[in-house]
């Protein structure tokens, strides 16, 4: 596990352990909200693993890996929504977009690699110029 992910997981676990006894007294909407937050963090961690493998390989993330992470979030949100007590329901797609955007931007920022002009570009390896254009044969290339 990446050191940053490990620290975030430890901090989140610590917060859960400290809040453990108080969790029983929480209103259902608050309990549901925290459960959804945890599911989003789990998805972010799973996406981090997908992106790490992609960055090492110099490719885009494996769609199957990304789909599995997103599917787990959707399933968790569906279960929580069905259990009742959530103040918002049907919000998995919007939360998923937030987690995706955050995870991709974080991977780009911490990747410290960029692709030279003329080389193919990918989501996780941005162009040094900042300009990636898809040509007529649908190949993204750095300009």
Largest sheet: 2 strands, antiparallel
- Overall number of domains: 2
Specify the number of helices: 4
- Helix coverage percent of residues? 55-70%
Record field, number of beta strands: 2
Low-confidence parts: none
Indicate the topology.
Blueprint lengths: L2 H21 L4 H30 L5 H21 L8 H20 L20 E3 L5 E3 L1
Report on this model:
With 143 residues, the chain is mainly alpha-helical. It folds into two domains: 3-112; 114-143, no CATH class. It has four helices and two strands; from the N terminus they run H-H-H-H-E-E. It has a two-stranded antiparallel ribbon with strand order 1-2. Helix 2 (28-57) runs parallel beside helix 4.
Which short descriptors sum up this protein?
single chain, 143 residues, mainly alpha, two-stranded antiparallel ribbon, 4 helices
Q: Quick summary of this structure?
A:
By secondary structure, this protein is mainly alpha-helical. It has four helices and two strands.
């Amino acid at each position: 596990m990446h050191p940053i992910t490990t620290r975030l997981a430890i901090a989140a676990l610590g917060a859960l352990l400290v809040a453990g006894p108080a969790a029983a007294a929480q209103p259902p909407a608050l309990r549901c909200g925290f459960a959804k937050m945890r599911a989003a963090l789990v998805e972010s961690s799973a996406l981090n693993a997908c992106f790490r493998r992609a960055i090492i390989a110099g490719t885009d993330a494996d769609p199957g890996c990304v789909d599995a992470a997103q599917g787990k979030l959707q399933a968790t949100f569906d279960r929580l929504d069905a259990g009742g007590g959530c103040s918002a329901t049907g919000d998995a797609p919007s939360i998923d977009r937030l987690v995706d955007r955050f995870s991709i931007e974080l991977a780009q920022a911490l990747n410290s690699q960029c692709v030279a002009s003329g080389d193919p570009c990918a989501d996780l390896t941005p162009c040094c110029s900042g300009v990636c254009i898809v040509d007529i044969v649908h190949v993204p290339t750095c300009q």
